[in-house]
Design brief:
With about 475 residues, the protein is of the alpha/beta class. It contains 15 helices and 14 strands. It has a 7-stranded mixed β-sheet, sandwiched between helices. Helix 10 packs across helix 12. The radius of gyration is 25 Å and the shape is globular.
Length: about 475
């Protein structure tokens, strides 16, 4: 702060180099320390810049050791082994020396704007070969704010993250008229691979029920169902914290074509997930889990596998809602609420039922009819899947499970004892209970996801087999 003439105080910023980026609080000193540990770097300073209004990014300014060069891709890979993705700088600037102020400290205001152009020393650039690749390169350059971008460039190694991925795919759909699943960036992260997906028309409508979030590793794979209508991308941070030796597959929500049977949607989806799981791991023991609504789905998947004679090594439910049983008043309440929402609304208003979808656990409720205005008939696939999941769950009865259930709750849900009691009654082998000091929506995000990964890793280390 500083005092202005007249006695007013002007706030200049934080003195502890802490910034907030995309909702995450970041200590810039942590990033600087990680970079300073690299043998090729002699001096470094990191700051957050907003050279484009509304687009804040981290930039690292480095002074190299004599005779060294900067391999940005290698540096990013090294940082991702130590830091969460949101702490990896989007831009790197090589300098001869860092500018100092009159007090001998780094003059951050004198640091230049990062050059969005590709370094001339970068020998990995491969030019686009056709119109599709050229158009896609332009879209990538617009979203990532740098260029030129070549065929071999990796979206994540260029500074891409989940928010930029969503922006990228929205622009790709507008430019090419095709909708690719967001999760395709996991198995096709380069511009060349994404262009290949765009060339194949069937890719735009293919139903993807499972995505390899972390396909490599020697440990038994995890199969996790995400929250309702969320992509498998939500497990990216969890996979990173569990380590490169732990494979993780996300049971992704599919595209919805035509009419579906609401009464059997939940069980039918679980059966399809079982088929996908068996395509990766033909026989058990299986490691199955899910978050929020995905916990309910994972529970049903485990039930189906057990009924098929397979063994379950661990069933992990991450902050699910309370289970519905036929002797539960909540079961009949939800059935009644579902009837009012999906049957009475269109009859009373004369408007399609999908216009009125309330996501019940949000305060205030999310009204899709207000969000989409005159474009209600163009509601995205995500809304349709969420709609079906909520309606299907309202018709589904949760039955007892023969083995142990691991229940991991946020502190937010820990204060609701009916959730723990409900799952405890259903777990024939007992309830393995854990609480994490976090809110519900924080569990799969940095920095709380690290604590979640530690609990899961501990549970997996002493997994016991459950069979029919």
């Amino acid at each position: 702060v500083r005092t202005l003439p007249g006695g007013a105080i002007e706030f200049l910023g934080r003195a502890d180099n802490q910034v907030k980026l995309r909702g995450f609080r970041i200590e810039l000193g942590e990033i600087e320390a990680a970079l300073a540990d690299l043998a090729s770097i002699r001096d470094v300073v990191v700051l957050m810049r907003e050279d484009i209004p509304g687009d804040s990014r981290l930039a690292a300014y480095v002074v190299l050791q004599p005779g060294e060069s900067l391999d940005v891709a290698a540096v990013r890979r090294s940082l991702r082994d130590r830091l969460p993705d949101y702490m990896v700088p989007a831009a790197f600037v090589v300098m001869d020396t860092l500018p100092l102020n009159e007090n001998g400290k780094v003059d951050r205001r004198a640091l230049p704007e990062p050059d969005a152009r590709r370094p001339e020393s970068d020998g990995q650039f491969v030019k686009p070969r056709d119109e599709t690749e050229a158009m896609l390169a332009i879209v990538w350059e617009e979203v990532l704010g740098r260029g030129p971008i070549g065929l071999r460039d990796n979206f994540f190694e260029l500074g891409g993250h989940s928010l930029l991925a969503a922006r990228l795919f929205a622009r790709m759909e507008a430019r090419f008229g095709k909708s690719l699943p967001l999760d395709s960036l996991f198995h096709a992260p380069t511009l060349e691979e994404q262009a290949g997906l765009l060339r194949e028309p069937w890719r735009a409508t293919r139903k993807r029920w499972m995505v390899a979030v972390q396909p490599s590793g020697t440990k038994p794979p995890l199969f996790f169902a995400p929250p309702a209508a969320s992509p498998a991308l939500v497990f990216a941070a969890l996979a990173r914290h569990l380590g490169k030796d732990q494979p993780l597959y996300g049971l992704a929500p599919p595209d919805i074509d035509g009419d579906v049977a609401i009464a059997t949607w939940f069980v039918d989806s679980a059966a399809r997930y079982v088929e996908e799981i068996r395509s990766v791991q033909p026989t058990g023991p299986y490691l199955v889990g899910g978050s929020c609504f995905g916990g309910l789905m994972a529970y049903e998947v485990a039930q189906l596998l057990v009924r098929q004679g397979e063994k379950i090594a661990r069933l992990v439910l991450i902050d699910p809602g309370s289970p519905l049983t036929r002797d539960s008043l909540e079961y009949y309440f939800r059935r009644g609420a579902s009837y009012c929402r999906y049957a009475l609304y269109p009859r009373l208003t004369g408007r399609p039922e999908h216009e009125y979808v309330v996501i019940p656990h949000h305060r205030p409720p999310i009204r899709f009819d207000l969000l989409y205005g005159d474009k209600r008939d163009q509601a995205p696939q995500g809304q349709k899947v969420w709609d079906l999941n909520l309606r299907g769950a309202a018709h589904h009865v949760t039955r007892p499970y023969p083995g142990e259930v691991t229940l991991i709750q946020s502190m937010q849900h820990h204060v609701l004892p009916e959730i723990q009691r409900g799952w405890s009654r259903l777990a024939g082998g007992g309830l393995d209970y854990h609480v994490i000091d976090a809110r519900h929506l924080e569990l799969l995000r940095e920095p709380k996801v690290g604590a979640l990964a530690s609990v899961i890793a501990e549970c997996l280390s002493d997994a016991s087999v459950v069979d029919a």
